[in-house]
Amino acid sequence: MDYLWGMKTISRTIRHAGFADASGIYKLIKANPNELVPRSMNDIIQNVDRFIVAVAGGRLAGIVSWAILPEIGRTEQPTVEIKSLAVDQAHRGRGLGRALVNAAIERIRPLQPEQIIVLTFTPEFFARFGFKTVAKETLMHKLYTGCLNCSKYDSPFTCPEVAMRLRLAPRAKSRR
Ligand SMILES: CC(C)(COP(=O)(O)OP(=O)(O)OC[C@H]1O[C@@H](n2cnc3c(N)ncnc32)[C@H](O)[C@@H]1OP(=O)(O)O)[C@@H](O)C(=O)NCCC(=O)NCCS
After folding, report:
1. Total domain count for the chain?
2. Which CATH number covers residue 93?
3. 176 is a domain residue
């Protein structure tokens, strides 16, 4: 899909990430230190198959990834977390964030998790996809593994990040 960027029209693509995207992903995460948990190059490369990227005008303009949390939920239906969502400042407000989250949800859906969760400072954005706020206490394992290394707040409960979840409707059986 194309969009107007400044005085020119540029094309955008949403696709799975490859190793060549790793350094761009690293830079985009680093560019959003207030909203995103830092990730090492090693972590990004090892999980590059769990990243979707937006490319606009031939350049990396947005990223999203997900993680499987078997500790939350039943073994057959663990929880999946959407994380590391960012759109380059210059490309915001043009639908890339929405396209990335939709693509991540569609990629996660066939896994049939119990729920998709997100910890976010922008709950209004995620509410647009049907995410609902939940008590942080329901995600204790995630809080204590994910928030353990964060020094910004005394405890996950004083951190203003909002916990949200999306329950996926079972897919309608296709008729043949
Ligand atoms: C949040 C973020 C990914 C949104 O990306 P974006 O490409 O600007 O979003 P879109 O253009 O796709 O916006 C889709 C809709 O959400 C709305 N929206 C965008 N950012 C929003 C926000 N922070 N809060 C509420 N609504 C928001 C838009 O107005 C748009 O509404 P519309 O459908 O009525 O037009 C981007 O602002 C960003 O990278 N922020 C910094 C990192 C961050 O906060 N990541 C999320 C951490 S979990």
Report:
1. 1
2. 3.40.630.30
3. no
57-110 pLDDT, tens digit each: 899 999 999 999 988 888 888 999 999 999 999 999 999 999 999 999 999 999
Q: What is the pTM of this model?
A: 0.92
In a domain, 171, yes or no: no
CA of 173 to the centre of ligand 1 (A): 33
Transcribe 54-113 into DSSP letters.
Answer: EEETTEEEEEEEEEEEEEEEETTEEEEEEEEEEE-GGGTTSSHHHHHHHHHHHHHGGG--
Q: CB within 6 Å of ligand 1 — which residues?
A: 32, 35, 85-87, 92-98, 118, 120-122, 124-125, 128
Q: How far is the CA of 126 from the centre of ligand 1 (A)?
A: 8
Boundaries of domain holding 82: 2-166
